[in-house]
């Protein structure tokens, strides 16, 4: 059963997923495997149930993604977290990313490539086969819109992490059969897919309880703004974020900590989230983030330990600090006393913490039903503030920034005063600060540093300040991108070239 403190959401859209095995083979082998729960390639797509099953298989890739979300690697690669675990050899592929010694054999680079193209392949199947099914047109349009949203989602991460990548819109084509496509051309598909999705998807308020977790108009608009922001296109970023704000579909949850537990699922500020549910029939649909980032001293594997540098970034008495980080002796929300185990830094992350009341019937954190929020309104407001400031709209930027700070005070008017500076450069620094603490340990820090063009400087300064090799090897012009997996280069017989600086 699903544990829910409010008891008002018993059905979850992704609970009917049939389970695919964890896929750790080469990409070409993955794309040739028939996903369980999806219509067979050898059978006709004839019903709306076939269409729904095919779409469900695309969402399923997000749940099983082994590294993009669950480990917090994009915090580990930044100044916000150290790898953790049971020493340097435990998850060595994460250490390679954190210390910038990774090569084309790195497991993270391989996994993200493989699973992203698996999701794209399944989305392409939906887009190829569903149009010919005789079914309700509105339902058909929505399924196609969701497939486009998800295809854009995967392609966005690929272009952000690898640059030029194979652009494939045919499910019968494998990545090793085509050359890499210019990033700008792939972005054009992303923009079009998200625009198309935004025109046909329903608002969040129009979803039934059974549909919560599916992509919405607001999610498509928000991700379109995010893609433009990552390209430094502040005009379009501001415009699309403005549409989300003007929709009045989202607001800041008054209780910041609630965003990250079961009580806050599908809350007022949640724009897109991964929908987990414990089901004894399908135990391999595991919420691995809970255990991977959980303290090894309590129930987890102890990865992604917050750094002192992140701790020092919080302003005095900011309530978000204790709702983001805990250390030995802290009293946790369920009354337990914090134990960070063998944390490299003396800190553990609070946001993935599973309280006693949220423990699933099996007792295993891998079966946790806590959702993972991928994009929320507090993030969007800060991105909107950043874009507005770059566009010279100071008042607009200040308004959005101070809304986030107001919520952060959680009723204490003596802390976190409003930002009032109208100096563009200083305001930019204030917004960057707020971004770091507002969504700290949510696996976004590295992306921010890269898109802001300061990742090398920040990481080398961190390395020098703390006398560590972490971040010190970062080379500008190389490490902003991942290496193309060597296995894929070999399979392509030369079709796929390597990114500069990797072997």
Automatic annotation (TrEMBL):
Gene3D superfamilies: 1.25.40.390. Residues 345-366 are annotated as: Disordered. The keyword Magnesium does not apply. It is found in: Cell outer membrane. TPR repeats lie at residues 218-251. One of its GO terms (cellular component) is cell outer membrane. Residues 101-229 form the SusD-like N-terminal domain. Keywords: Cell outer membrane, Membrane, Signal, TPR repeat. It comes from the Bacteria. InterPro entries: SusD-like_N, SusD_RagB_dom, TPR-like_helical_dom_sf, TPR_rpt. The keyword Signal applies. Its main location: membrane. Residues 296-502 form the RagB/SusD domain. Belongs to the SusD family. This is Starch-binding associating with outer membrane. The lineage of its organism: Bacteria, Pseudomonadati, Balneolota, Balneolia, Balneolales.
């Amino acid at each position: 059963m699903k544990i829910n403190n409010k008891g008002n959401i018993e059905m979850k859209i992704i609970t009917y997923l049939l389970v695919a095995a964890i896929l750790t083979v080469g990409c070409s082998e993955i794309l040739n495997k028939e996903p369980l729960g999806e219509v067979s390639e050898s059978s006709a797509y004839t019903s709306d149930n076939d269409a729904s099953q095919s779409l469900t298989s695309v969402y399923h890739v997000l749940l099983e993604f082994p590294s993009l979300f669950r480990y917090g690697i994009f915090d580990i690669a930044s100044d916000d977290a150290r790898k953790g675990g049971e020493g340097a050899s435990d998850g060595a592929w994460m250490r390679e990313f954190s210390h910038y010694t990774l090569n084309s054999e790195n497991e993270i680079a391989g996994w993200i490539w493989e699973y992203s193209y698996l999701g794209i392949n399944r989305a392409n199947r939906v887009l190829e086969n569903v149009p010919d099914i005789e079914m309700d047109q509105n339902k058909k349009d929505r399924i196609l819109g969701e497939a486009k949203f998800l295809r854009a989602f995967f392609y966005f991460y690929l272009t952000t992490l690898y640059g030029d990548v194979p652009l494939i819109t045919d499910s019968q084509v494998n990545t090793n059969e085509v050359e890499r496509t210019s990033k700008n051309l792939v972005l054009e598909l992303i923009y079009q897919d998200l625009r198309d999705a935004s025109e046909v998807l329903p608002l969040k308020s129009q979803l039934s309880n059974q549909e919560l977790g599916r992509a919405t108009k607001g999610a498509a608009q928000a991700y379109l703004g995010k893609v433009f922001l990552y390209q430094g296109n502040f005009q379009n970023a501001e415009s699309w974020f403005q549409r989300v704000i003007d929709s009045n579909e989202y607001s800041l949850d008054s209780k910041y900590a609630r965003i990250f537990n079961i009580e806050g699922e599908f809350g007022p500020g949640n724009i897109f989230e991964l929908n987990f549910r414990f089901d004894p029939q399908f135990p391999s649909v595991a919420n691995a983030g809970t255990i991977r980032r959980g303290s090894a001293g309590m129930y987890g594997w102890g990865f992604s330990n917050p750094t002192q540098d992140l701790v020092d970034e919080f302003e005095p008495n900011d309530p978000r600090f204790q709702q983001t980080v805990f250390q030995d002796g802290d009293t946790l929300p369920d009354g337990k006393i914090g134990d960070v185990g063998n944390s490299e830094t003396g800190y553990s992350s609070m946001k993935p913490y599973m309280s006693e009341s949220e423990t699933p019937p099996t007792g295993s954190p891998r079966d946790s039903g806590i959702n993972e929020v991928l994009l929320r309104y507090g993030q969007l407001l800060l991105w909107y503030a950043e874009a507005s400031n770059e566009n010279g709209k100071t008042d607009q930027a200040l308004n959005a920034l101070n809304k986030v700070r107001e919520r952060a005070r959680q009723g204490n008017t003596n802390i976190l005063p409003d930002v009032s500076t109208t100096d563009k450069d200083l305001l930019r620094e204030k917004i960057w600060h707020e971004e770091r603490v507002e969504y700290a340990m949510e696996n976004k820090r590295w992306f921010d540093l890269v898109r802001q063009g300061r990742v090398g400087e920040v990481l080398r300064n961190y390395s020098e300040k703390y006398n560590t090799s972490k971040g010190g090897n970062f080379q500008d012009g190389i490490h902003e991108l991942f290496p193309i997996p060597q296995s894929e280069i070999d399979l392509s017989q030369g079709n796929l070239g390597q990114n500069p600086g990797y072997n």
